[in-house]
Design goal:
about 280 residues, mainly alpha, 13 helices, about 70% helix
């Protein structure tokens, strides 16, 4: 018998749906919705509370980590033990409160947000529920383990970083800026480094704000005479704005980070030139 997956009771899915809600709201300039979504994240996923502990169990299994199979199997075992130690009644109550808050403070439509790794999260949920036959359980666990052993596709969230890796990343942006980064570029890279210890929460929040700022600056740039009177520059500016808007539906990766850094530099050049004129 197939067990129906209730995504509203999938802690990791709701968390990712709220992150996506905040991102889209930020790009639309909807500060009220963004603030509500971020408030719910901070309220319900505080360090060491029951939802955060459940989320950690999901996250230990849901990402491509390029691990050895034996290591992945051990993590699977420990994640299942840790999740079963969570009080099911307390977890159900906390999930109910989160669902109610999302419905009341935001909208039920949040639960319809696109989450790229939804299928993996649903599979992990079935494993954690422990209602499957032994055969089905092993088959699903093998699917998750295969995913854990797969190498990440240049994902900024999953890489191990040190000074050499950081320099390499910056060189991909443009070697000449390695020693002369803008303050906002340094901030972006600082959040990028910190993202490996906080599941990218701070990085995502920073990008929400920064992409909104850059989008606004590029829209305003279209009124500058040198750009307004040049059809080619208007077209290029519109393409940049469109790309920034499309980041709301993408995972954070090198393309996103590099594009934001280049746009930061472009905005600085546009308005520095404007000031000098």
């Amino acid at each position: 018998m197939k067990i129906k997956h209730n995504k509203k009771r999938n802690t990791a899915f709701v968390y990712e749906a709220l992150i996506r809600e905040a991102t889209v709201a930020t790009l639309k300039g909807d500060k009220a919705t963004r603030d509500k979504a971020l408030h719910l994240i901070k309220k319900h996923f505080k360090p060491n509370n029951i939802l955060k502990r459940d989320l950690v169990c999901y996250r230990s299994l849901c990402e491509e980590q390029n691990l050895e199979k034996t290591t992945s199997e051990k993590i699977m075992k420990e994640a299942k033990v840790a999740q079963r130690l969570i009080d099911p009644h307390g977890l159900f109550k906390a999930q109910t409160e989160l669902i109610d808050d999302v419905n009341k403070e935001l909208s039920p439509s949040v639960f319809g947000n696109f989450v790229p790794n939804y299928k993996t999260l649903a599979t992990i949920s079935q494993i954690f529920q422990g209602r499957l036959s032994p055969k089905k359980t092993v088959m699903l666990e093998n699917q998750v383990i295969d995913n854990m052993t797969r190498a990440p596709e240049q994902s900024a969230n999953d890489s191990n970083i040190d000074n050499v890796v950081l320099k390499t990343f910056v060189n991909k942006f443009n070697g000449k800026y390695t020693e002369n980064l803008l303050e906002e570029q340094r901030s972006l890279l600082s959040y990028y480094i910190a993202s490996f210890t906080d599941n990218s929460v701070e990085l995502k929040m920073f990008l929400n704000e920064e992409i909104t700022r850059l989008k606004k600056e590029m829209l305003n740039a279209k009124n500058i005479s040198e750009i307004k009177e040049d059809n080619e520059m208007i077209t290029k500016t519109n393409k940049i704005i469109e790309k920034l808007e499309n980041f709301a539906s993408q995972n954070i990766n090198e393309d996103v980070l590099l594009t934001v850094m280049r746009t930061q530099e472009l905005v600085k050049e546009i308005y520095s030139d404007g000031d000098s004129n």
